Amino acid sequence: MENEKVLEVDNLHVSFQTYAGEVKAVRGVSFELKKGDRLGILGLNGAGKSTLLKVIAGVYKPTSGTVTRHGHIAPMIELGAGFDMQYTGAENIFLYGAVLGHSRKFMEEKFDEIVEFSELGKFIDVPLKNYSSGMKARLGFSIATVVRPDILILDEVLSVGDAKFRKKSEKKLVDMMDTGVTVLFVSHNLDQVKRICNKAMILEHGEMKAFGDIDEIAPVYEEMIE
Q1: Residue 146: predicted pLDDT
Q2: Within its chain, how far is the Cα of 155 from the centroid?
Q3: Which band of pLDDT confidence, cut at 50, 70 and 90, is reported for residue 187?
Q4: pLDDT, tens only, 44-59
Q5: Exposure of 96 in the CB half-sphere (CA atoms within 13 A)
Q6: What is the 3-state secondary structure (H, E, C) of the chain?
Q7: Residue 192 — very low, low, confident or very high, per pLDDT cuts 50/70/90?
Q8: What is the mean pLDDT of the chain?
């Protein structure tokens, strides 16, 4: 159903204790997304973008506030997250698949499709410690998008690798969006965000400064980075 809520974030606060004292990484963020929304999360370094995504993905627990998710979530938050660098690419397909909640049987059925999309060829049998960051990104993206999750979280993963694969990945994202997948997308590439997203948010020092349609938010962000 269109207009069906898939994500609700209510008055979210995230704080960390450091040697210098408490750091408030996210402060009072609230928003909701419906099925098929594609949210671009914008902000300068240290704005709290990755922390917000990690709380939504369940990696971090909020200090206060709530995150309500509806449906299956596939996070791609850090290159190599869920991977073991000592294992081969092939072994990591099953490992990362398990992290995402897929059975071994399912991953066996999807194995050839994943390898073909990743374009890793013979490198699929090489340990990940010998992979470039772009190769790891290709493998992670290929695994995370082998199914149609309800919510797909992407943190800068489309900024790594060659231009050909980035274009191919963008196309796959667009195809997934046509089926109603909801996307949260962090990128410093505003043009890429405008191509992919229909909504955007600007974070600054952990606070949400703006939220709305991408056409309204993009000019505000452009002024910030000039």
Answers
A1: 86
A2: 4
A3: confident
A4: 988 999 999 999 998 8
A5: 33
A6: CCCCEEEEEEEEEEEEEECCEEEEEEEEEEEEEECCCEEEEECCCCCCHHHHHHHHHCCCCCCEEEEEECCCEEEECCCCCCCCCCCEHHHHHHHHHHHCCCCHHHHHHHHHHHHHHHCCHHHHHCEHHHCCHHHHHHHHHHHHCCCCCCEEEEECHHHCCCHHHHHHHHHHHHHHHCCCCEEEEECCCHHHHHHHCCEEEEEECCEEEEEEEHHHHHHHHHHHHC
A7: confident
A8: 89
Q: Which pLDDT score, from 0 to 100, does residue 177 have?
A: 77
> Is pLDDT of 79 > 60?
no
CA distance 144 to 114: 9
C-alpha span between 190 and 188 (Å, rounded): 6
Burial of 209 (0-12, 13-18, 19+ CB in 10 A): middle
- Collect all residues with Cβ–Cβ distance below 8 Å to 109 and sequence separation of at least 6: none
Q: What is the per-residue pLDDT for 161? A: 64
Radius of gyration of the chain (CA): 18
pLDDT at 212: 96
Buried b (16+ CB within 10 A) or exposed e, 102-131: beeeebeebbeebbebbbbeebbeeebeeb
Q: Which residue reads 């397909």 in tokens?
A: 93
Euclidean distance between CA atoms 140 and 142, whole angstroms: 5
Q: Is residue 182 within 8 Å of 35, Cβ to Cβ?
A: yes
